[in-house]
Amino acid sequence: MVSRDLPVPDPRAARDLISLKKAAALVDVEPKTIRNWISAGLLQGYKLNDQLWRVDRREVLDLARPVAIDASDGVA
After folding, report:
1. Buried/exposed code over 49-73 (b: 16+ C-beta within 10 A; e: otherwise)
2. How does pLDDT run across 34-74, given as a tens digit for each residue?
3. Is 0.70 topped by the overall pTM?
4. Distance of alpha carbon 64 from alpha carbon 34, whole angstroms
5. H/E element holding 25?
């Protein structure tokens, strides 16, 4: 998994770090999916105290944001 062992420099940014379980519930996926996104490099994971994983809430929402589909390309 991709991780940063460095502390988050801005204390306000730390408030946006959430657990993998909360992140999964936020975007209606399993926690394993969040772990897979971290492993794939799609999402930055932060390891706290060498055991607790956290992710940035905004990054999770940005990654899971629906993509607009152009209906003019003829694909159903």
Report:
1. eeeebbbbeebbeeebeeeeeeeee
2. 999 999 999 999 998 888 999 999 999 999 887 777 777 65
3. no
4. 10
5. helix 20-27
